[in-house]
Amino acid sequence: xxxxxxxxxxxxxxxxxxxxxxxxxxxxxxxxxxxxxxxxxxxxxxxxxxxxxxxxxxxxxxxxxxxxxxxxxxxxxxxxxxxxxxxxxxxxxxxxxxxxxxxxxxxxxxxxxxxxxxxxxxxxxxxxxxxxxxxxxxxxxxxxxxxxxxxxxxxxxxxxxxxxxxxxxxxxxxxxxxxxxxxxxxxxxxxxxxxxxxxxxxxxxxxxxxxxxxxxxxxxxxxxxxxxxxxxxxxxxxxxxxxxxxxxxxxxxxxxxxxxxxxxxxxxxxxxxxxxxxxxxxxxxxxxxxxxxxxxxxxxxxxxxxxxxxxxxxxx
Length: 316
Fold this sequence. Notes:
The chain has helices at 11-43, 48-51, 53-76, 78-98, 102-121, 123-130, 136-153; strands spanning 168-170, 173-175, 179-182, 187-194, 216-218, 221-223, 233-237, 242-246, 269-276, 281-287, 310-315. By secondary structure, it is an alpha+beta fold. It folds into two domains: 11-157, Growth Hormone, Chain: A (Up-down Bundle); 168-315, Immunoglobulin-like. It is elongated and about 80 Å long. The chain starts with 10 loop residues before the first helix and ends with a strand.
């Protein structure tokens, strides 16, 4: 029996939209979880070694079932496999949202992976029967574009920034906040947990802590200067004459963090210092170097966006 040469309009556009939405969900869900993993691990108080199974379970379920489900589609019909996969994926997504422990979330992610495999295994076949033969190349190209776009946009939908940032702890949770209100003529004690590696300084003078009350403390030990090739960043308040080089995580350190917020169980350095606020005013604080490397005046670049590694001290 010969199949019809594609679907007529407007059914074709409706089918294309349905196929695209399904594949977008399956691909984006994988990318989001990769980036959000540190946050999930922190919320569930799980170690990195165990939390990685949130991602592994999803990917392994897809890998082992993709070809068998594609074969099953040839036997029972592509539409049935697609619909069962879509329903399973949707129910598993609700299961993920309700999961409050790592084992439950991992089980939900595995089920979700089988659902995603049902969607992905028959995706190309559905495209083949949706477009007429003369437009099949266009259909395959559009489908590939949707997959590539979904993989690229997934990380941007995650609650984590994809670059470094300063986060503050508030009621047990990390949030991005870089505008602080402080009392005038007060001593302020700051503790920074740095999870980033070395970047180096353009000016070795910036490796010497200045403008502080007492020494800079790194991992419990006072320092007077830091070699210019070591610091990750500098915490600076130019109007107050404050420059604090931030000690890096070693390149060979185990359990390094890739995206903020990072769990305290991951490799990090602890930097402590105290400064005096002075008279009332609005003071700009920033990661002066190397965050603005390449900008002559020391300002510019995405890492110096207010709310990431730049902010204000409102002294009142």
